Every structure is written in structure tokens, then in C-alpha cells.
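Subgroup meeting minutes
Present: P.N., E.W., G.H.
Scribe: E.W.

1. P.N. recapped why we're keeping a running log of single-chain structure predictions: easier to compare across weeks, and new members can see raw inputs and outputs side by side.
2. G.H. added today's entry (300 aa).
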Amino acid sequence: MADVRGLQLLHELNLRGTLAAAADALYLSHSAASHRLAVLEREVGVPVTERIGRRLRLTETGVALAACAQRLQQEIETTDAVIEQARTTVAGRVRVGLFQTAALRILPRLLGELRDEYPGVVLESTQTLAASALASVQTGELDLAVVPSYQHHAPPHPSEALHHEPLYTDHWLLVLPPDHRLHQTSGPIDITELRSENWIAGETVTHYLSRLCRDAGFEPHVVHRSSDYTVMTTLVSLGYGISFMPIIDELSSLLPPVRLRQLNISGADQTVLAVRRESSRGRPAVDAVWRLMLRRGHEI
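Output recorded in log:
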């Protein structure tokens, strides 16, 4: 019989694409992950991975076993649902991954409502990038995720394993130093005016920003990379670059001296999505958090 831990590693490798990423997801060292794969191959009796150049790829057998591991995860979740439904109260642990501004907008109210309406539900949260959050929902490391879907980005790829719904929309603004040459501009700023600027942006925003700038005929020069609001706005206020981000009420009073301006691009907005596994339907604790999360999102 194939080792369940080896199957789980194979599933992670299939989702994440590299052994290093799969090992990180399971809190394994690279050598431990390699050993686990080797043990699985000995048990199966045929190769489950193959080396293509420098990349490790699943064989046909490996892909089939990874699918088996995913079904096994779904069966485990079905078992959890049966146990939770048998209880007289809604209780259990729910794990959610969010990016920074979503955490600020969603978490405080969500935790308060859970405490009042479902005191038996324990919510655990982690701040993470969208790609990692989606992969973690698929593998069962997270139960729910809150991720951005930009205008130039498609929503998370349709999957029979995942379900997503819109939560709210963030409106993005250009963030300038207080003495910037364009700070007195009254109307929206033409993005072509910014081709020579230094930018401050995180990994996800850089991808979005690059698409917007390429549409205007140039590539943004990102000199400082951070996803932390405080770091980004502080560097802007000191004149080390400009940025582009959603400005939310929860943070506006904490911003250092900066100028906020609109860009002359249509739909410079961010739709924020809630994501869950289809197999988690029927778990009362997850369903409760999902309902409260959607309710909070629709209030924004």
C-alpha cells in the first residue's frame, strides 16, 4: 500500500510545480521530501516523477496518484463534515488566508461576529499571497482564502475543487510624495506622465502595475518591493518613489504625508474574492465563517 504521506507530497508537487515549494508547504526539508518521494517510488514499483532539464515533473502514474491523493483529502473532509454535523453546536477550527488590506477590512468584524454568534468556532488566520492561498485551499492547509482579482487578471481558474464569490471592490489610487511635480493636478493623472518614475510595490501589485504600464507603452521601474502599507507609504512620503494601491478607510488616518490622485485608466479597481473548496460544503464551522465573511464583504 502506498504511503499516505508520500501521496500527499505528490499532490503538493502537482499543485505547486516544484519540489521545494511542495516541501515548504508540508514543512519538510528538501532532503526529507526527496526521501519521501523515493520511498513512494519503491512502494509503487514504477517512477512517479521524471527529470525534464532542471525541472521535476510527474509521470502519468504520478499524476494519477496525485489525483487519488486529492480524492483522499476530500473523503477526509467529508468525514470531518459528518462529525461536525453530529454535534449539537457549531464548533471547530477554520483556517483562512488573506492579504494585508483584506485582513484589515474583514478580520476585526468577522472575529467579533464569530464570538457573538458561533463561540465554538475557532478562526485561525494567516497573511499570504494569493497564489499561495489558493494552492493551500486546494491542498486543505487552508479552509478559506480572500484573494484579489484585478481587472487585467482573470479570477482564479475555474476548478471543480474550488468555488469563489465576490466580496467587495477596492478603488485604487496613485500615491505621490507631498512635493511631487504632479501633486497639484486636480483631475486624473495620465499614466504616461509616470514613465520616468521610480515605483514602490509588492509582488502582486507589480504584476498588475506592469500590465497597466505596458498598455501605456512603458515598463515601470520598481525600485523598492514591499507589500506592507506602512513601508510603502513611508517611502513614498520621503520621496523615494511613487506607488499605486487601494486606500481603505481603516488605514487613511494612519498614512504619513502623501498625495492621493486618480489615474486616467478605466476600472482601476480590485475585486476581492472569497474562495473555498467545494468539498468543504456541509462542514458547519466552515459554512458559518463563509456566511459571515460574505455578509461583512457586502457591507463594505
